[in-house]
Design a protein that fits this description.
The chain is α/β, with parallel strands linked by helices. Among the domains are: 299 residues, Alpha-Beta Complex (Spore Coat Polysaccharide Biosynthesis Protein SpsA, Chain A), CATH 3.90.550; 84 residues, no CATH class. It has 13 helices and 14 strands. It has a 9-stranded mixed β-sheet with strand order 2-3-7-6-5-8-11-10-12, with helices on both faces. It has a 3-stranded mixed β-sheet with strand order 9-14-13. The relative contact order is 0.12.
Length: 556
């Protein structure tokens, strides 16, 4: 009898131990499923200084990735993860007096926001969770962990900068990015001291290209395959013999290659070049409208914001062409710029975490992508789609970096678990809108400024399919000759995202060679036109009206 009781007792204890172990393991696995939902990778940098004949240098930043196991840190007192894990520290940064992470963590910071009540580790307000699919709350918490982990080491290559891209596949996209880079470089070199508005100068504003490794390899090989060192004359046959199949698949034709090599100028056109590796997210082309791009490409683009090299990073599509004055956009996010109120009037007077314009098809199919209960989240249907062709992030604020981590996580979920073969994702703006809607809901302290549509112009003017018509709403007003404006001198647009309507600067696109001084003479601003003008070009007589009046005008 006693033996039977002892046996029963042993079985009971063993069963309890097994149940406890399994329960504990399940709880642990559930937490890890939140942290390790997808393998996020953090960039490592290979910095290579390259000089051209004029002594100019540029830096290549390789976004080669390594596994980032955000759940693998033991945050004990003697941990070595590089963070100060004091009891009161919740932002993931070392807030000691000698902090050198270029982020202002002091109580009296001057970023225009009160960071005391809305710390990144605060819970989402209870009312903000109502009706939201729980998976998005888990993804938000994961974005917080990722942001906390790598924020201090991110965005360290300058305060202000423009990033063009990402580009891949068809090399014409990278050629367009090079042309746009040359246009921006030309704008930044022009003297703007007589505008009456304080703007960033070329010294302050940096320029980066984000492109596939294959495209960067093509550009870096330009000087190796010149014919007898003739400027920009490439032996394309020899070029093909030496390149890998992956590069040859992306190889442009002779004209495109030589034009790209001219603009590339041994890499000195850009301050930084980011080689974009495959995004560490699961893509699904069965749920994607491939007319505008693959899910793999869109996830790479949506995941690229977190790799921005600058604290204030303006991302531009390769065909989003700026006008002189583009620097004024940075007043929207810069807490130290005293000119904010002189140029912009916005509902919130403080600096933005994100500045972006509204897409021309603002409400198209929004009702298909509500992230939860359709009745409770009914306002999501009217939450306008944004124009991702021009986005300005303020990474001086941790909130912006967390958003940059949150966007690709939401996008990956939508591509794989919300979209279907019957309801496909059209482009990157669909998941971006959902992520931004949720982030604004979850983080009340987050500030978004709208870039007015007459500053960031996204339109197909004069076309029946245009969502917003730039000929009708003042983007490109009629001129005295009865023709719509087609030059920076007569449009308020600081960015022209108008694929079928190229807008010139004084009659030129800004990347021609040679760059005529009439570009300077006929622009709306007063530039420095001294004898030592930077362009060193022939100023021949010619058309002086500042417009390209050919019937079949297209991008040169």
């Amino acid at each position: 009898m006693i033996a039977s009781l002892l046996t029963l007792l042993i079985i009971s204890i063993t069963s309890c131990w097994l149940i406890s172990s399994i329960t504990s393991r399940c709880s642990s696995d559930h937490i890890n499923s939140i942290i390790d939902f997808s393998p996020i990778k953090v960039k490592t940098e290979e910095r290579e200084e390259i000089s051209n004949d004029d002594g100019e240098t540029r830096t290549t930043v390789d976004t080669t990735a390594h596994d980032d196991d955000t759940g693998g840190h033991d945050d004990t007192e003697d941990d070595d993860d590089g963070h100060d894990d004091t009891e009161d520290d919740t932002d993931g940064h070392d807030d000691t007096e000698d902090d050198d992470d270029s982020h202002d963590d002091s109580e009296d910071d001057d970023d225009g926001h009160d960071d005391s009540e809305h710390d990144i580790d605060d819970d989402i307000p209870p009312h903000a969770k109502l009706g939201v699919d729980p998976i998005y709350i888990e993804l938000f918490k994961k974005a917080q962990l990722l942001s906390k982990y790598d924020y201090a080491s991110s965005h360290q290559h300058g305060k202000f900068g423009i990033v063009i891209g990402p580009t891949e596949a068809n090399f014409r996209h990278t050629l367009r990015a090079l042309q746009n880079g040359k246009r921006i470089s030309s704008i930044l070199q022009l003297n703007q001291t007589q505008q009456g508005i304080s703007t960033k100068t070329k010294k302050d504003l940096k320029l980066a290209l984000m492109a596939s490794p294959e495209h960067v390899q093509i550009l870096d090989s330009c000087s190796s395959y010149m014919i007898n060192q003739q400027p920009n004359k490439i032996n394309i046959t020899r070029f093909k013999e030496k390149m890998s199949d992956a590069v040859i698949d992306n190889l442009p034709d002779q004209y495109e290659l030589e034009e790209a090599c001219r603009l590339w100028a041994n890499g000195t056109l850009f301050d930084h070049t980011l080689k974009m590796k495959d995004a560490p997210y699961t893509h699904n082309d069965n749920h994607t409208n491939l007319d505008q791009g693959s899910s793999k490409y869109w996830l790479k683009a949506l995941g690229g914001y977190r790799l921005a090299p600058y604290q204030h990073s303006l991302f531009l599509d390769s065909d989003s062409y700026p006008c002189p004055g583009i620097q004024k956009l940075f007043q929207l996010t810069d807490p130290e710029d005293d000119s904010f109120g002189k140029y912009w009037q916005l509902p919130v007077s403080g600096p933005a975490d994100l500045a972006i314009g509204i897409e021309q098809y603002a409400a198209w199919q929004n009702e298909r992508w509500i992230p939860g209960d359709k009745k409770i989240l009914s306002d999501c249907t009217n939450f306008a789609e944004r124009n991702t062709g021009a986005i300005l992030f303020n990474f001086q604020r941790l909130l912006a970096h967390t958003l940059a981590q949150f966007i690709p996580l939401v996008s990956e979920h939508i591509y794989n678990h919300v979209a279907t073969p019957e309801q496909k994702v059209t482009n990157d703006q669909v998941p971006f809108r959902v992520a931004l809607y949720l982030f604004r809901r979850f983080q009340p302290d987050f500030v978004e400024h709208q870039i007015p549509m007459h500053a960031s112009c996204r339109t197909y003017p004069g076309m029946d399919y245009a969502g917003t018509d730039g000929f009708l709403n003042g983007m490109y007003p009629l001129q005295h000759d009865g023709k719509p404006c087609k030059d920076c001198s007569c449009t308020p647009c600081l960015i022209n995202h108008t694929p079928n309507y190229p807008v010139t600067i004084g009659g030129f696109m800004g990347w021609e060679k040679p760059l005529p001084k009439k570009l300077i003479r006929h622009s709306q601003f007063s530039y420095d036109d001294t004898e030592d003008d930077y362009d060193g070009d022939d100023d021949t007589e010619g058309d002086t009206d500042g417009h390209d009046d050919t019937e079949d005008d297209d991008v040169p």
